[in-house]
Design brief:
Strand content: 15-25%
Helix content: 40-55%
Largest sheet: 5 strands, antiparallel
Radius of gyration: 22 Å
Number of strands: 8
Shape: elongated
Number of helices: 11
């Protein structure tokens, strides 16, 4: 997890924002947190650590991939069993007012909150693929909140609403088997992962390790669903990003190096094959067009 996303742990148990807040914590030492409650919903997304969460009198051991929802006014606290392993998690706070706002849009946003309060079931386990998808959404949200791009606040709201709906859908499909629809496919998770790591190594071997499936299975699933190889898809996405970057006046060298092309010759061949023109001629053409 990128260091730039990390927040120093704070004992504050109230929100500064009226709607939502989200943090990534990575603690190697953590002083005892007393049993407490608050007036907003609190989500935990667990990444690592030898930790249990106490809710009332009950103790819930947690592990990678677990998601926990603590409703308002429910007493809880973390119990750190040892600090040999860092305690890493995302913490997402969302106000009751914002939940009511979403519920007025659609009651689909509120299924999970009602389920937790009705059944007093706070902990939900997830497999690695499902949790990786959640983690990608959360990372994208934190990065947007820390940025300063045009439309930032609108995009943040869209990301938050998407995350909440995704969580509701996951829990609904686990507990309504008679109405269960297929979970997000491996192909969709791969596409999301590729989009979020487009500048990094995206070899079949790495993706196979990340998703715990064989590289042959990944290749087969991708070809069947998209009609192209995973290599073709990655190249196409990288070329689109390079093209847009060049249009935004980024240098050709910086563009191909930023978006995952190992050398200029491979970038040149791929660009010319895709767009029928060399990168240099494409850049010159845009300069002529706008001058």
């Amino acid at each position: 997890m990128a260091k730039k996303l990390e927040t120093r742990f704070q004992t504050r148990q109230y929100m500064l924002s009226k709607d939502f807040e989200i943090y990534y914590y990575n603690d190697h030492t953590l002083s005892k947190v007393e049993l407490h409650s608050h007036d907003y919903y609190e989500f935990y997304f667990f990444l690592e650590g030898n930790v249990s969460i106490q809710i009332g009198e009950a103790l819930y051991p947690v592990k990678f991939g677990d998601v926990m929802l603590i409703p308002p006014q429910v007493p809880h606290c973390p119990i750190i069993h040892n600090t040999d392993i860092p305690y890493r998690r995302f913490v997402f706070w969302i106000s009751q007012d914002y939940c009511r706002h979403l519920c007025r849009i659609s009651t689909d946003y509120f299924y999970l909150m009602e389920y937790v309060q009705k059944h007093q079931k706070y902990l939900f386990h997830n497999d690695r693929i499902t949790f990786n998808s959640l983690q990608s959404q959360i990372t994208r949200l934190i990065e947007e909140m820390g940025g300063n791009r045009f439309g930032k606040h609108t995009q943040i709201s869209l990301y938050v609403n998407e995350l909440i709906l995704h969580l509701n859908r996951l829990v609904y499909e686990k507990h309504m088997p008679s109405k269960k629809v297929p979970e997000i496919s491996l192909c969709q998770n791969l596409i999301r992962y590729i989009e979020n790591h487009i500048e990094q190594d995206l070899s079949l071997e790495l993706l196979a390790r990340e998703f715990f499936v064989s590289k042959y299975h990944i290749a087969h699933v991708f070809k069947d669903n998209l009609g192209m190889s995973i290599h073709q898809h990655i190249t196409k996405k990288r070329l689109e990003l390079c093209r847009d970057a060049i249009l935004s006046d980024m240098s050709i060298t910086q563009a191909y190096q930023t978006f995952g092309f190992g050398d200029y010759s491979s970038f040149y061949r791929a660009f010319k094959k895709e767009y029928g023109i060399s990168p240099r001629d494409f850049k010159d053409m845009q300069t002529v067009t706008y001058d």
